[in-house]
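Subject: Predicted fold for FAD-binding FR-type domain-containing protein, 382 residues

User T.R. writes:
Posting the sequence so we have a shared reference for the thread.
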Amino acid sequence: MSKIHNGEDHNVSAAVLSTGGGLSSPKINSSQLMLVTGIAALVLCFIMLLTSLTPIRRRFYEVFYYTHHLFVPAVVITVIHSLISTFWIIGIAFYCSNKLYNFVSIKKYTNKEVKVEVISAKTIAISLPQKKKFISNFGLSKDNTGKYIYVCCPKISILQWHAFDLTDGSDENFDKLIIGANGNWTRKFNNLLSEDSESNYSLLVSKPFTSKYSHVFENDIAILVSGGTGISPMIPIINKHAHYLTTKKRKHSLEKIHLVWICRDASLFDLLEEPLNNLISKDLNERLTVTIYYTGSKINETSVGQHQKSALFELPQVSLVYSKPDLYDVYTEIITKYESNKNIGIVAVGSESLTEQAKRISRKWARENKRAFRVNFYSAAL
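User M.O. replies:
I've generated the C-alpha coordinates; pasting them so everyone works from the same file.
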Protein backbone atom coordinates (compact mmCIF):
# COMPACT_ATOMS: atom_id res chain seq x y z
CA MET A 1 0.00 0.00 0.00
CA SER A 2 2.79 2.37 0.89
CA LYS A 3 4.38 1.84 -2.48
CA ILE A 4 1.19 2.67 -4.31
CA HIS A 5 0.60 5.75 -2.13
CA ASN A 6 4.13 7.00 -2.70
CA GLY A 7 3.79 6.46 -6.43
CA GLU A 8 0.59 8.54 -6.59
CA ASP A 9 2.13 11.39 -4.61
CA HIS A 10 5.10 11.41 -6.94
CA ASN A 11 2.91 11.62 -10.07
CA VAL A 12 0.77 14.45 -8.69
CA SER A 13 3.79 16.50 -7.65
CA ALA A 14 5.35 16.00 -11.05
CA ALA A 15 2.21 17.28 -12.76
CA VAL A 16 2.13 20.32 -10.51
CA LEU A 17 5.78 21.10 -11.14
CA SER A 18 5.36 20.78 -14.89
CA THR A 19 2.56 23.41 -14.92
CA GLY A 20 4.26 25.84 -12.60
CA GLY A 21 1.92 25.07 -9.74
CA GLY A 22 -1.34 25.51 -11.74
CA LEU A 23 -3.70 23.37 -13.77
CA SER A 24 -2.68 22.46 -17.32
CA SER A 25 -4.53 24.27 -20.17
CA PRO A 26 -5.51 22.47 -23.41
CA LYS A 27 -3.39 23.34 -26.44
CA ILE A 28 -4.74 23.78 -30.00
CA ASN A 29 -2.66 21.82 -32.43
CA SER A 30 -2.05 22.82 -36.04
CA SER A 31 -4.75 20.55 -37.47
CA GLN A 32 -7.43 22.08 -35.22
CA LEU A 33 -6.25 25.58 -36.14
CA MET A 34 -6.49 24.76 -39.84
CA LEU A 35 -10.03 23.41 -39.35
CA VAL A 36 -11.32 26.40 -37.37
CA THR A 37 -9.77 29.07 -39.61
CA GLY A 38 -10.86 27.20 -42.74
CA ILE A 39 -14.49 27.06 -41.63
CA ALA A 40 -14.44 30.73 -40.52
CA ALA A 41 -13.00 31.88 -43.86
CA LEU A 42 -15.55 29.76 -45.75
CA VAL A 43 -18.46 31.29 -43.81
CA LEU A 44 -17.26 34.86 -44.42
CA CYS A 45 -16.78 34.19 -48.12
CA PHE A 46 -20.26 32.66 -48.35
CA ILE A 47 -21.82 35.78 -46.79
CA MET A 48 -20.00 38.01 -49.29
CA LEU A 49 -21.04 35.74 -52.15
CA LEU A 50 -24.68 35.79 -51.05
CA THR A 51 -24.86 39.58 -50.88
CA SER A 52 -23.17 39.83 -54.28
CA LEU A 53 -26.16 38.28 -56.04
CA THR A 54 -27.62 40.78 -58.49
CA PRO A 55 -31.11 41.14 -56.85
CA ILE A 56 -29.59 41.77 -53.42
CA ARG A 57 -26.81 44.04 -54.67
CA ARG A 58 -29.19 46.25 -56.64
CA ARG A 59 -31.96 46.56 -54.03
CA PHE A 60 -29.78 46.62 -50.90
CA TYR A 61 -26.54 48.20 -52.02
CA GLU A 62 -25.54 49.29 -48.50
CA VAL A 63 -25.86 45.68 -47.28
CA PHE A 64 -23.66 44.58 -50.15
CA TYR A 65 -21.14 47.32 -49.41
CA TYR A 66 -20.89 46.74 -45.66
CA THR A 67 -20.72 42.95 -45.82
CA HIS A 68 -17.88 43.15 -48.31
CA HIS A 69 -15.74 44.73 -45.62
CA LEU A 70 -15.69 41.20 -44.23
CA PHE A 71 -12.95 40.52 -46.75
CA VAL A 72 -10.51 42.10 -44.27
CA PRO A 73 -11.00 39.47 -41.51
CA ALA A 74 -11.40 36.83 -44.24
CA VAL A 75 -7.94 37.64 -45.58
CA VAL A 76 -6.42 37.70 -42.08
CA ILE A 77 -7.98 34.32 -41.25
CA THR A 78 -6.85 32.89 -44.57
CA VAL A 79 -3.29 34.04 -43.90
CA ILE A 80 -3.39 32.27 -40.53
CA HIS A 81 -4.91 29.24 -42.22
CA SER A 82 -2.03 29.08 -44.68
CA LEU A 83 0.45 29.52 -41.82
CA ILE A 84 1.48 33.02 -42.97
CA SER A 85 3.20 32.11 -46.22
CA THR A 86 5.33 34.57 -48.17
CA PHE A 87 2.87 34.32 -51.06
CA TRP A 88 0.04 35.82 -48.97
CA ILE A 89 2.24 38.56 -47.52
CA ILE A 90 3.31 39.70 -51.01
CA GLY A 91 -0.29 39.57 -52.27
CA ILE A 92 -1.61 41.64 -49.36
CA ALA A 93 1.19 44.17 -49.83
CA PHE A 94 0.26 44.64 -53.50
CA TYR A 95 -3.42 44.95 -52.66
CA CYS A 96 -2.86 47.52 -49.90
CA SER A 97 -0.54 49.60 -52.08
CA ASN A 98 -3.12 49.62 -54.90
CA LYS A 99 -5.91 50.68 -52.52
CA LEU A 100 -3.70 53.41 -51.07
CA TYR A 101 -2.87 54.68 -54.55
CA ASN A 102 -6.57 54.78 -55.51
CA PHE A 103 -7.44 56.59 -52.27
CA VAL A 104 -4.84 59.36 -52.54
CA SER A 105 -5.75 59.94 -56.21
CA ILE A 106 -9.37 60.86 -55.41
CA LYS A 107 -10.29 64.39 -56.47
CA LYS A 108 -12.97 66.54 -54.86
CA TYR A 109 -15.15 69.01 -56.78
CA THR A 110 -17.52 71.58 -55.32
CA ASN A 111 -20.79 72.58 -56.99
CA LYS A 112 -19.13 75.80 -58.19
CA GLU A 113 -16.51 73.81 -60.13
CA VAL A 114 -18.99 71.48 -61.85
CA LYS A 115 -20.57 72.61 -65.12
CA VAL A 116 -24.00 71.09 -65.70
CA GLU A 117 -25.80 70.93 -69.05
CA VAL A 118 -29.36 69.60 -69.20
CA ILE A 119 -29.72 67.62 -72.43
CA SER A 120 -33.18 66.20 -71.81
CA ALA A 121 -35.57 65.43 -68.98
CA LYS A 122 -33.60 62.28 -68.12
CA THR A 123 -30.10 63.13 -69.30
CA ILE A 124 -27.48 65.63 -68.19
CA ALA A 125 -23.88 66.30 -69.12
CA ILE A 126 -21.39 67.38 -66.48
CA SER A 127 -17.93 68.83 -67.09
CA LEU A 128 -15.21 68.53 -64.47
CA PRO A 129 -12.07 70.69 -64.63
CA GLN A 130 -8.90 68.67 -65.00
CA LYS A 131 -7.06 69.16 -61.74
CA LYS A 132 -3.32 68.65 -61.75
CA LYS A 133 -2.62 65.89 -59.30
CA PHE A 134 0.61 64.07 -60.02
CA ILE A 135 -0.28 60.93 -58.09
CA SER A 136 -3.48 60.40 -60.11
CA ASN A 137 -2.11 61.39 -63.52
CA PHE A 138 1.17 59.50 -63.38
CA GLY A 139 1.53 57.07 -66.25
CA LEU A 140 -1.79 58.04 -67.85
CA SER A 141 -2.33 59.84 -71.15
CA LYS A 142 -4.87 62.62 -71.62
CA ASP A 143 -6.71 60.49 -74.15
CA ASN A 144 -10.26 59.69 -72.96
CA THR A 145 -10.75 56.74 -75.31
CA GLY A 146 -11.87 53.69 -73.37
CA LYS A 147 -11.51 55.47 -70.03
CA TYR A 148 -14.03 55.57 -67.18
CA ILE A 149 -14.12 57.04 -63.69
CA TYR A 150 -16.01 56.40 -60.46
CA VAL A 151 -18.17 59.21 -59.08
CA CYS A 152 -19.51 59.58 -55.54
CA CYS A 153 -21.95 62.23 -54.35
CA PRO A 154 -21.79 62.28 -50.54
CA LYS A 155 -25.04 64.23 -50.32
CA ILE A 156 -26.85 61.22 -51.82
CA SER A 157 -24.72 58.45 -50.32
CA ILE A 158 -21.12 58.37 -49.16
CA LEU A 159 -21.08 54.63 -49.81
CA GLN A 160 -22.08 54.49 -53.45
CA TRP A 161 -19.51 54.94 -56.22
CA HIS A 162 -20.80 54.65 -59.79
CA ALA A 163 -18.74 54.18 -62.97
CA PHE A 164 -19.21 56.51 -65.96
CA ASP A 165 -17.43 56.56 -69.30
CA LEU A 166 -15.48 59.67 -70.21
CA THR A 167 -16.42 61.41 -73.42
CA ASP A 168 -14.87 64.21 -75.44
CA GLY A 169 -16.12 67.75 -74.99
CA SER A 170 -15.47 71.05 -76.72
CA ASP A 171 -13.05 72.12 -73.97
CA GLU A 172 -9.98 69.92 -73.57
CA ASN A 173 -9.40 71.26 -70.05
CA PHE A 174 -12.56 69.51 -68.80
CA ASP A 175 -13.53 65.87 -68.44
CA LYS A 176 -17.08 65.34 -69.65
CA LEU A 177 -19.65 62.76 -68.57
CA ILE A 178 -23.09 62.06 -70.03
CA ILE A 179 -25.37 60.63 -67.35
CA GLY A 180 -28.81 59.19 -67.96
CA ALA A 181 -31.36 58.58 -65.18
CA ASN A 182 -31.36 54.78 -65.44
CA GLY A 183 -31.63 53.90 -61.74
CA ASN A 184 -32.45 55.27 -58.29
CA TRP A 185 -29.04 56.81 -57.70
CA THR A 186 -28.73 58.40 -61.14
CA ARG A 187 -32.26 59.83 -60.87
CA LYS A 188 -31.41 61.46 -57.56
CA PHE A 189 -28.07 62.62 -58.95
CA ASN A 190 -29.57 64.20 -62.06
CA ASN A 191 -32.31 65.91 -60.05
CA LEU A 192 -29.79 67.28 -57.59
CA LEU A 193 -27.49 68.73 -60.23
CA SER A 194 -30.09 69.96 -62.71
CA GLU A 195 -32.84 71.34 -60.45
CA ASP A 196 -30.97 72.49 -57.36
CA SER A 197 -28.07 74.46 -58.78
CA GLU A 198 -27.62 76.40 -55.55
CA SER A 199 -27.26 73.27 -53.46
CA ASN A 200 -23.98 72.95 -51.62
CA TYR A 201 -23.09 69.52 -52.95
CA SER A 202 -19.67 68.07 -53.73
CA LEU A 203 -18.42 65.22 -55.90
CA LEU A 204 -15.63 62.74 -55.27
CA VAL A 205 -14.01 61.39 -58.43
CA SER A 206 -11.55 58.55 -58.82
CA LYS A 207 -8.60 58.38 -61.20
CA PRO A 208 -9.44 57.13 -64.71
CA PHE A 209 -9.43 53.41 -65.46
CA THR A 210 -9.12 51.74 -68.86
CA SER A 211 -11.91 49.63 -70.40
CA LYS A 212 -11.18 46.58 -72.50
CA TYR A 213 -12.97 48.06 -75.53
CA SER A 214 -10.06 50.46 -75.97
CA HIS A 215 -8.47 47.56 -77.90
CA VAL A 216 -10.98 47.90 -80.73
CA PHE A 217 -8.32 49.77 -82.74
CA GLU A 218 -6.44 46.50 -83.18
CA ASN A 219 -9.11 45.39 -85.69
CA ASP A 220 -9.62 46.26 -89.37
CA ILE A 221 -13.32 47.11 -89.07
CA ALA A 222 -15.20 48.32 -85.98
CA ILE A 223 -18.91 47.99 -85.29
CA LEU A 224 -19.98 50.21 -82.38
CA VAL A 225 -23.33 49.25 -80.85
CA SER A 226 -24.61 51.76 -78.32
CA GLY A 227 -27.83 52.25 -76.44
CA GLY A 228 -29.00 55.69 -75.27
CA THR A 229 -26.26 57.46 -73.32
CA GLY A 230 -23.94 54.62 -74.29
CA ILE A 231 -23.02 56.91 -77.17
CA SER A 232 -20.70 58.84 -74.84
CA PRO A 233 -17.69 56.44 -75.03
CA MET A 234 -18.18 56.08 -78.78
CA ILE A 235 -17.43 59.75 -79.39
CA PRO A 236 -13.77 59.50 -78.21
CA ILE A 237 -13.36 56.37 -80.35
CA ILE A 238 -14.56 58.26 -83.44
CA ASN A 239 -12.37 61.28 -82.67
CA LYS A 240 -9.30 59.13 -82.04
CA HIS A 241 -9.92 57.26 -85.28
CA ALA A 242 -10.01 60.57 -87.19
CA HIS A 243 -6.83 61.72 -85.45
CA TYR A 244 -4.91 58.54 -86.30
CA LEU A 245 -6.00 58.66 -89.95
CA THR A 246 -4.51 62.13 -90.35
CA THR A 247 -1.16 61.46 -88.67
CA LYS A 248 1.88 60.35 -90.63
CA LYS A 249 2.58 57.44 -88.33
CA ARG A 250 -0.60 55.39 -87.96
CA LYS A 251 -0.76 53.53 -84.69
CA HIS A 252 -3.56 51.15 -85.63
CA SER A 253 -4.99 49.22 -88.56
CA LEU A 254 -8.60 50.33 -88.18
CA GLU A 255 -10.03 51.26 -91.57
CA LYS A 256 -13.67 52.11 -90.94
CA ILE A 257 -16.22 52.49 -88.14
CA HIS A 258 -19.89 51.53 -88.36
CA LEU A 259 -21.95 53.11 -85.58
CA VAL A 260 -25.25 51.47 -84.63
CA TRP A 261 -27.10 53.65 -82.13
CA ILE A 262 -30.34 52.46 -80.51
CA CYS A 263 -31.94 55.54 -78.97
CA ARG A 264 -35.36 56.47 -77.65
CA ASP A 265 -34.53 60.11 -76.85
CA ALA A 266 -34.24 62.37 -79.90
CA SER A 267 -32.65 65.09 -77.77
CA LEU A 268 -29.45 63.04 -77.72
CA PHE A 269 -29.01 63.12 -81.51
CA ASP A 270 -27.12 66.42 -81.36
CA LEU A 271 -24.29 64.73 -79.45
CA LEU A 272 -23.03 63.32 -82.77
CA GLU A 273 -22.74 66.64 -84.57
CA GLU A 274 -19.31 67.57 -83.23
CA PRO A 275 -17.50 64.28 -83.98
CA LEU A 276 -19.10 64.12 -87.43
CA ASN A 277 -18.10 67.68 -88.19
CA ASN A 278 -14.59 66.74 -87.12
CA LEU A 279 -14.52 63.96 -89.72
CA ILE A 280 -15.95 66.23 -92.40
CA SER A 281 -13.35 68.93 -91.75
CA LYS A 282 -10.63 66.32 -92.32
CA ASP A 283 -12.35 64.92 -95.43
CA LEU A 284 -12.89 61.54 -93.79
CA ASN A 285 -16.62 61.16 -94.47
CA GLU A 286 -16.21 57.67 -95.91
CA ARG A 287 -14.50 56.38 -92.78
CA LEU A 288 -17.72 56.32 -90.73
CA THR A 289 -21.33 55.26 -91.21
CA VAL A 290 -24.07 55.98 -88.68
CA THR A 291 -27.40 54.21 -88.36
CA ILE A 292 -29.74 55.52 -85.66
CA TYR A 293 -32.58 53.23 -84.60
CA TYR A 294 -35.23 55.34 -82.93
CA THR A 295 -37.20 53.26 -80.40
CA GLY A 296 -39.13 56.03 -78.61
CA SER A 297 -42.89 56.43 -78.57
CA LYS A 298 -44.79 57.70 -81.61
CA ILE A 299 -45.80 60.76 -79.60
CA ASN A 300 -42.18 61.93 -79.73
CA GLU A 301 -41.82 61.46 -83.49
CA THR A 302 -42.53 65.17 -83.90
CA SER A 303 -39.39 65.86 -81.88
CA VAL A 304 -37.49 63.44 -84.09
CA GLY A 305 -38.70 65.29 -87.17
CA GLN A 306 -37.39 68.55 -85.78
CA HIS A 307 -33.98 67.03 -85.18
CA GLN A 308 -33.96 65.57 -88.68
CA LYS A 309 -33.79 69.11 -89.99
CA SER A 310 -30.32 69.51 -88.46
CA ALA A 311 -27.16 69.22 -90.52
CA LEU A 312 -26.53 65.80 -88.98
CA PHE A 313 -29.09 64.05 -91.20
CA GLU A 314 -27.97 65.86 -94.35
CA LEU A 315 -24.89 63.67 -94.42
CA PRO A 316 -25.17 60.64 -96.73
CA GLN A 317 -23.51 58.30 -94.21
CA VAL A 318 -26.19 59.00 -91.55
CA SER A 319 -29.52 57.18 -91.68
CA LEU A 320 -32.53 56.99 -89.33
CA VAL A 321 -34.69 53.89 -88.84
CA TYR A 322 -37.93 53.79 -86.82
CA SER A 323 -37.61 50.30 -85.33
CA LYS A 324 -35.46 48.04 -83.20
CA PRO A 325 -32.58 46.42 -85.06
CA ASP A 326 -32.00 42.73 -85.61
CA LEU A 327 -28.35 42.66 -84.63
CA TYR A 328 -27.64 39.45 -86.50
CA ASP A 329 -28.86 41.03 -89.74
CA VAL A 330 -26.94 44.23 -88.89
CA TYR A 331 -23.69 42.29 -88.42
CA THR A 332 -24.27 40.35 -91.63
CA GLU A 333 -25.03 43.43 -93.72
CA ILE A 334 -21.93 45.27 -92.51
CA ILE A 335 -19.34 42.50 -92.37
CA THR A 336 -20.16 40.78 -95.68
CA LYS A 337 -19.29 43.99 -97.53
CA TYR A 338 -15.63 43.30 -96.85
CA GLU A 339 -13.18 40.70 -98.02
CA SER A 340 -12.61 37.63 -95.89
CA ASN A 341 -9.82 37.35 -93.32
CA LYS A 342 -10.68 40.77 -91.89
CA ASN A 343 -10.56 41.31 -88.14
CA ILE A 344 -13.92 42.65 -86.97
CA GLY A 345 -14.15 44.40 -83.61
CA ILE A 346 -17.60 44.77 -82.06
CA VAL A 347 -18.09 47.15 -79.13
CA ALA A 348 -21.37 47.25 -77.20
CA VAL A 349 -22.09 49.85 -74.53
CA GLY A 350 -25.54 50.27 -73.04
CA SER A 351 -27.96 48.47 -70.79
CA GLU A 352 -27.10 45.01 -69.51
CA SER A 353 -29.73 43.43 -71.76
CA LEU A 354 -28.33 45.17 -74.86
CA THR A 355 -24.71 44.23 -74.17
CA GLU A 356 -25.66 40.61 -73.43
CA GLN A 357 -27.70 40.43 -76.63
CA ALA A 358 -24.90 41.97 -78.69
CA LYS A 359 -22.40 39.54 -77.16
CA ARG A 360 -24.56 36.47 -77.69
CA ILE A 361 -25.35 37.32 -81.31
CA SER A 362 -21.73 38.24 -82.12
CA ARG A 363 -20.57 34.85 -80.84
CA LYS A 364 -23.24 33.11 -82.87
CA TRP A 365 -22.24 35.03 -85.99
CA ALA A 366 -18.56 34.32 -85.36
CA ARG A 367 -19.19 30.57 -85.02
CA GLU A 368 -21.12 30.44 -88.26
CA ASN A 369 -18.51 32.46 -90.18
CA LYS A 370 -15.28 31.52 -88.41
CA ARG A 371 -13.56 30.48 -91.64
CA ALA A 372 -14.10 33.87 -93.24
CA PHE A 373 -13.79 36.46 -90.47
CA ARG A 374 -12.35 36.81 -87.02
CA VAL A 375 -14.75 38.59 -84.66
CA ASN A 376 -13.61 40.16 -81.37
CA PHE A 377 -16.20 41.40 -78.90
CA TYR A 378 -15.82 44.10 -76.23
CA SER A 379 -18.59 45.25 -73.93
CA ALA A 380 -19.43 47.51 -70.99
CA ALA A 381 -22.81 47.80 -69.24
CA LEU A 382 -24.05 51.20 -68.12
